[in-house]
Amino acid sequence: MSTNRIKKFRPFTIVCVLAALFAVTPLVSGQVSTTQAPARTSSIQSIPNGSKLKFKGVVIGQEADTFTIRDRNRTDYHVAINDRTSIKTHGGFLRSGKKYPASELLRGLIVEVEGKGDQQGRLQAEKIRFNESDMRAAITSDTRVTPVEENQQRMAGQMDELYAVAAEARREVTAVNERVTSLDDYDVQETVSVTFRTNSAVLSPEAKAQLDSLALKANEARGYVIEVAGHTDSTGSETKNFRLSRQRADAVVQYLAVQHKIPQRRFVSPMGFGKTESVAENTTAAGRQQNRRVEVKMLFNRGLTQSTQTKPAP
Question: What is the mean pLDDT of residues 15-39?
Fold first, then answer.
């Protein structure tokens, strides 16, 4: 064959060789992926022996009684489960939660883990808690993803990242649900105790000054209520003391509402406890003075507080 004919067919030969290589490449990569999984980019965090740890993360792997759980900082932990590990859902009847076996901890499930480190650097789990809604989501994810994994093992290294991304999205939804649930929960932020003279429900100048300070904080706050409880010493009859303690509580509410324009909806129904909740002995004048009091508590709504403090995960 002449040199010109060789030059003429050379481009065609090169194209055929490249096509054959591209056809063989998927078969080779498929065989390699079944024998060697892609390298993990995250590292396993070792836990010192005896150290207590509590964190929240997503289950990304399971081997016998050991699970791999990744927290929101992309740090992985080996968590060991034994017969004493308590595995339950949050809440439920009487807040006892529903028990689950370890085999139900599916990948993609967001869990809260509490335990101690062992000699192998694992966390020996004492408590594992999760939401029922996250369990349903994990079951749905596992049902859809497992057949795909069985047919495409070469993509196993990417599945963990997909689970983590899905868990991040569910975590945001869970955070919103928790804030809504916490709308009925309150935390005490400010407490003021004002005292009264014997058989009197009139606020003293010192008591008004204390309430003025509380009102300044209330006018700048959101998501709060004010709880007012009146008390007396042991002087007088029980019926009189209950009436007097309620009058003292009403006097505090009236002062805050009229003088500082705090809306009535901010007040929990004032209560008079009479002499039933003494904080000091009634055998001395100083003790009786401490008992002639009204306790004012400023309670902040936990759900609204979380909504202003919680920042989105990166």
Answer: 44
**Fold (topology level) of 52-182:** OB fold (Dihydrolipoamide Acetyltransferase, E2P) (2.40.50)
CATH domain 185-308 topology: 60s Ribosomal Protein L30; Chain: A; (3.30.1330)
Pairing of strands 86-89, 123-130: parallel
| Biggest CA pair distance of the chain | 129
CB 62 within 8 A of CB 107: yes
Q: pLDDT tens across 171-187, in order?
A: 776 665 555 454 456 78
Give tens-digit pLDDT for 101-125: 888 888 889 999 999 999 999 999 9
Buried b / exposed e over 236-253, threshold 16 CB at 10 Å, is: eeeeebbbbbbbbbbbbb
| Domain spans in the chain, listed from the N-terminal domain onward | 52-182, 185-308
Q: Is this model's pTM higher than 0.90 or not?
A: no
What is the strand order of the sheet 186-195 is part of? 186-195, 293-301, 224-230, 271-272
- What residues have CB less than 8 Å from 252, skipping those under 6 apart? 194, 203, 211, 228, 230, 270, 294, 296
Contact between 69 and 113 under an 8 Å Cβ cutoff? The reply is: yes
